[in-house]
Amino acid sequence: MIEPEEARVSTQPERKNKRFLAPQEKYEIWMQLVRGEITIGDAADRNRVDRATISKLKEVARNGALVALAASRPGRRQPARDLELDDARAEVERLRTALAEMAVKLTLAEGKGRWG
Q1: In a domain, 37, yes or no
Q2: Rounded (10°) angle between helices 51-71 and 23-35
Q3: Is residue 56 located within the same domain as residue 29?
Q4: Cα 28 to the center of its chain, rounded Å
């Protein structure tokens, strides 16, 4: 027997739609927290997100700042390395070596007599 719609009442609270914050919003919230202008609860209420979202935002921003500061060195900056270019150069060198090995094997297999 199928129950009518009214009979199926959920005891769980209605789930909110997930709200995503833009990077600029996250930065502004983090700055307000750092300056002590708002609390985590106030920030969550104002931005219609869960307190855990604000706590995670604060933790991620702190860790990101620490990583950036650790990588920062006074004085002249070293140019940023292009990892893709480094990988391509390594591949070129590997292929060059493989080609040279194949040329040696071909020379040994065919012998010097065929060259002239």
Answers
A1: yes
A2: 90
A3: yes
A4: 21
CA distance 115 to 111: 8
* Residue 44 CB neighbours (<10 A): 19
Domain that holds residue 25: 19-70
Coil vs helix vs strand at 27: helix
Residue 8 resides in a domain: no
Q: Where are the alpha helices (DSSP H) in the chain?
A: 23-35, 40-46, 51-71, 83-110
- What are the two backbone dihedrals, phi and then psi, of residue 55, each rounded to the nearest 5 degrees? -65, -45
Per-residue pLDDT 10s for the chain (116 aa) are: 555 555 555 565 665 677 888 999 999 999 999 999 999 999 999 999 999 999 999 999 999 999 888 888 777 666 777 889 999 999 999 999 999 999 999 988 887 665 55
Say yes or no: 60 and 102 in one domain.
no
How many structural domains is the chain composed of?
2
The overall pTM is greater than 0.85: no
